[in-house]
Write a sequence for this structure.
C-alpha cells in the first residue's frame, strides 16, 4: 500500500470505509500543500472520486495550534451560507488512526494564485478583475454571517479583539526575539502606538485571520470557488481582515510587498482603493479608520516573521539554513511599513 509521510494509508483507508459513504478503496494520497502550516492531501479513490484531507504538520507542532476540530466545525457551519467553502465530509479526533486528528472535505478543483506568473498564466485581465472583485464580495459575505444562527456564537470572545491580538502577538514576538538576544525597537514602538489608539469595536463577526488571494481556490472564471485555511479563524473585529487584505494586496510600483512575487501586481486586478470601495459597498461598513487596521496588519506580520526567523536561526528548519537572515530584514521592513501606514493616525 502507498506510503506517504503524514498519512497512515492502511488506517486512513479503513476510516474512509467506515465513515465516508461511497468511497471505494484503494485510496491514493498526494501532498498538495505543506510546510509550517497544516498539511493538505488530495485523496483519490478507485472510482476516481476525490477528497481533501487536512492534518497538522508532522513536527514542530505548538500545543494550542492546528486544531482540526475547530477548522472542521467552521467549514461545516458555513455550508449553507453564501460563503464558498469545500463540502465537509467527516472528522476524526482519534490520533491512533493517523498520528493526529484530521478531517476530510470534498476536493475543490481550481487555481491558487501564489505569484505573478501563475496569475498571468491562468486568468486573463477580465478574469483577474473578477477575482479581485469577488474576493472583496466574499469577505463581506463572511463578515455578514450570523454567527449565532450558524452555531459559531461560542467560537471565541466577541469583544476586545484587537487588544487580545496585540497582547498575543507581542508576547510571541518578545519570546522569539529573546531567544536570539535580538532587539527591533520599531516593533516595540508600534505596539505601544497601536495599543493607545485601538478603535471602538463594532458588532463582532467571523474573522478569518489570514484572508488573502492565495488562501482561496479560484475557478476558471476567476470567481472564488472556496475559501481555504481557516485554522486561525475566530470572532472579533472584521476590519482586521480588511486591513490585512490591504497589506497583502500589492500594486505595481510598490517598493515592498508582504508576499514575494505578489500576484496582484499583474494587470487586471483592481487597485487597493477599488477593493476598499467594493467591500464597503457590499458590507456597508465604515472604513474611515482602516489605516489603523492596515498598520496593525503590517505589525502582526512582523511579529509572526520574527518567530519564523527565530526558529530558523535556532536550527529548527534543518538542512540548508542559508538565507534565513532575510526574515530578520523582513521583520524590520514590515515594522517600518506599519509605522508608515499609521502616519495619518
Amino acid at each position: 500500500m502507498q506510503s506517504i509521510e503524514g498519512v497512515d494509508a492502511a488506517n486512513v483507508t479503513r476510516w474512509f470505509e467506515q465513515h465516508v459513504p461511497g468511497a471505494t478503496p484503494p485510496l491514493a494520497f498526494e501532498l498538495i500543500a505543506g510546510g509550517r502550516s497544516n498539511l493538505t492531501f488530495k485523496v483519490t479513490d478507485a472510482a476516481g472520486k476525490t477528497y481533501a484531507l487536512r492534518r497538522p504538520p508532522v513536527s514542530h507542532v505548538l500545543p494550542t495550534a492546528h486544531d482540526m476540530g475547530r477548522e472542521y466545525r467552521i467549514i461545516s457551519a458555513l455550508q449553507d451560507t453564501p460563503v464558498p467553502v469545500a463540502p465537509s465530509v467527516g472528522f476524526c479526533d482519534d490520533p491512533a488512526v493517523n498520528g493526529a486528528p484530521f478531517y476530510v472535505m470534498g476536493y475543490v478543483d481550481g487555481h491558487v494564485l501564489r505569484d505573478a506568473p501563475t496569475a498571468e498564466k491562468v486568468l486573463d485581465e477580465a478574469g483577474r478583475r473578477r477575482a479581485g472583485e469577488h474576493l472583496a464580495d466574499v469577505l463581506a459575505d463572511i463578515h455578514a454571517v450570523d454567527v449565532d444562527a450558524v452555531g459559531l456564537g461560542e467560537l471565541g470572545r466577541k469583544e476586545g479583539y484587537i487588544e487580545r491580538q496585540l497582547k498575543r502577538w507581542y508576547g510571541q514576538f518578545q519570546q522569539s526575539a529573546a531567544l536570539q538576544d535580538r532587539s527591533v525597537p520599531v516593533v516595540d514602538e508600534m505596539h505601544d502606538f497601536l495599543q493607545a489608539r485601538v478603535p471602538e469595536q463594532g458588532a463582532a463577526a467571523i474573522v478569518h485571520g489570514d484572508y488573502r488571494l492565495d488562501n482561496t481556490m479560484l475557478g476558471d472564471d476567476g470567481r472564488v470557488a472556496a475559501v481555504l485555511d481557516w485554522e486561525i479563524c475566530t470572532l472579533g473585529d472584521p476590519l482586521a481582515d480588511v486591513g490585512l487584505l490591504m497589506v497583502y494586496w500589492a500594486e505595481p510600483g510598490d517598493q515592498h510587498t508582504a508576499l514575494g512575487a505578489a500576484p496582484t501586481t499583474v494587470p487586471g486586478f483592481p487597485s487597493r482603493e477599488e477593493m476598499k470601495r467594493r467591500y464597503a459597498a457590499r458590507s456597508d461598513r465604515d472604513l474611515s479608520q482602516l489605516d489603523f487596521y492596515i498598520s496593525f496588519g503590517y505589525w502582526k506580520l512582523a511579529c509572526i516573521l520574527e518567530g519564523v526567523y527565530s526558529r530558523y536561526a535556532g536550527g529548527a528548519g534543518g538542512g540548508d539554513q542559508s538565507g534565513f537572515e532575510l526574515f530578520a530584514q523582513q521583520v524590520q521592513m514590515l515594522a517600518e511599513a506599519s509605522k508608515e501606514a499609521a502616519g495619518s493616525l
Notes: The CA atoms of residues 61 and 269 lie 36 Å apart.
